[in-house]
């Protein structure tokens, strides 16, 4: 069962979480404020109620995880979002990152390859108010050609390569934030598609994500 009540206690725990991730290097005030407002315990089973605001990843079923809040904040900060941008997210998972993006004021298009996770988000009542999030069941390597091009692409699973179709669906001037690498550790990269269509790449810290896999799963 999912918790549905946001108690005063949870708000206090969120304030502490904001202190923790800001001490780890998150400086974007809007990102910190959003992490301080989104009820992360709603995205987890009530068994995790006491630990939902620890800066850790947790299991969400199907062998997948809700990302660590620091990681969510880090990727969101790297995206340098502006209001109303179109953002493509690969790996909906718990939908926590999608809600954080929506709270940043952008239009979110999010894809999940695991049918069960996609279906469980369809009946997750809290998400109903987020009319600026569109949920898709599909293979993120293919993106959403009919909904693009996008201002930003965020990949929330360990990508073995930079998916070429996602680069195609990026606007000129757009950016992709991607944890790149096979194995236990991936390096966060930010790829910018310049005005002339050429690509530039910046390298950031190491993270550990579940793998980005090809094809859909029933
Ligand atoms: N953004 C999520 C993180 C979930 S973990 C959150 O905030 O909770 C990564 C997710 O990516 C998993 O749910 C996994 O099933 C999904 N995934 C992996 N490969 C994918 C692909 N090719 N297309 C879409 N989703 C994918």
From TrEMBL:
Active-site feature positions: 67
Class of this enzyme: transferase
Highest rank taxon of the organism: Bacteria
InterPro entries: PCMT, SAM-dependent_MTases_sf
Location in or out of the cell: Cytoplasm
Catalytic reaction annotation: [protein]-L-isoaspartate + S-adenosyl-L-methionine = [protein]-L-isoaspartate alpha-methyl ester + S-adenosyl-L-homocysteine
Alphabetized GO MF terms: protein-L-isoaspartate (D-aspartate) O-methyltransferase activity
Family: Belongs to the methyltransferase superfamily. L-isoaspartyl/D-aspartyl protein methyltransferase family.
Protein name: Protein-L-isoaspartate O-methyltransferase
Species whose genome carries this gene: Terrimonas rubra
Gene coding for it: pcm
């Amino acid at each position: 069962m999912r918790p549905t009540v946001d108690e005063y206690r949870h708000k206090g725990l969120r304030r502490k979480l904001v202190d923790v991730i800001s001490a780890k290097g998150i400086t974007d005030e809007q990102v910190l404020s959003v992490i301080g407002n989104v009820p992360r315990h709603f995205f987890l089973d009530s068994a995790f109620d006491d630990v939902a605001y620890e800066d850790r990843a947790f299991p969400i079923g199907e062998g997948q995880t809700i990302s660590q809040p620091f990681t969510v904040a880090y990727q969101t900060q790297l995206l340098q979002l502006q209001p109303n941008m179109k953002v493509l997210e690969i790996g909906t998972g718990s939908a926590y990152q999608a809600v954080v993006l929506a709270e940043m004021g952008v239009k979110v298009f999010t894809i999940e390859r695991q049918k069960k996770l996609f279906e469980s988000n369809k009946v997750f009542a809290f998400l109903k108010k987020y009319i600026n999030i569109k949920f898709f069941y599909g293979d993120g390597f293919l993106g959403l050609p009919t909904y693009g091009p996008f201002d930003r692409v965020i990949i929330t699973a360990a990508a073995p390569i930079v998916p070429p179709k996602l680069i195609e669906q990026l606007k000129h001037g757009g950016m992709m934030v991607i944890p790149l690498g096979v194995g236990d550790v991936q390096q966060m990269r930010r790829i910018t598609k310049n005005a002339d269509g050429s690509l530039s790449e910046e390298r950031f810290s190491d993270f550990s994500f579940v793998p980005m896999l090809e094809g859909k799963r029933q």
